[in-house]
Amino acid sequence: MTELVKNTKQFQTMGEDANLKRWKETTKSLLDAVDNLYCQPYSICVVPEELRKQNESAYEPKVVSIGPRFKGKRELQQMEEIKRRCMLCLLSRTKGDGTKILETCMREMLELDATVRACYGEEIKLNKYDLAQLWCMTAVFS
């Protein structure tokens, strides 16, 4: 019997917990094998200029801005009010003190400032407080 068939039959006869354990180990091994030098250092990319030039309006928000790049654009300001309303609505439905929950979210976002900034391929011109506020509002709205 070939090794692959033998391993497959053995895998099929394992219990569910063993299958899950093996799957986790295999996935971890695959991820450990990735050469991090070739991984993108950030995860929120800017559309390359050459691509944007083809159809610039296709890459610009029309109604709502998610994230700091287009913050402050006049035509998107109406949705900023809706984001705040969504935040108030969510906080009013919590069982605890909505103000304390908001403070906790803001504190957590402040602690993540360097991590959030590292996710972008461009400089974020907001101070850490404005960025934390932006992401708390955006997270509730999204």
Number of domains: 2
Spatial shape: extended
User: Which class best fits the helix and strand makeup?
Assistant: mainly alpha
Number of DSSP strands? Answer: 0
Largest sheet: none
Share of helical residues:
55-70%
Enumerate how many helices there are, as a single number. 7
C-alpha Rg, in Å? 23 Å
- Give the overall pLDDT as a whole number: 81
* Series of H and E elements: HHHHHHH
How much of the sequence is in beta strands? under 5%
Describe the 3D structure.
This protein has two domains: 35 residues; 81 residues, no CATH class. The chain is extended. The chain has seven helices and no strands. By secondary structure, it is an all-alpha fold. The relative contact order is 0.10.
Set out the fold topology.
Blueprint (H helix, E strand, L loop, with lengths): L2 H11 L2 H17 L16 H6 L22 H16 L5 H14 L1 H6 L9 H14 L1
Kindly summarize this structure in a few lines.
This protein is an all-alpha fold.
State the main characteristics.
142 residues, mainly alpha, 59% helix, extended
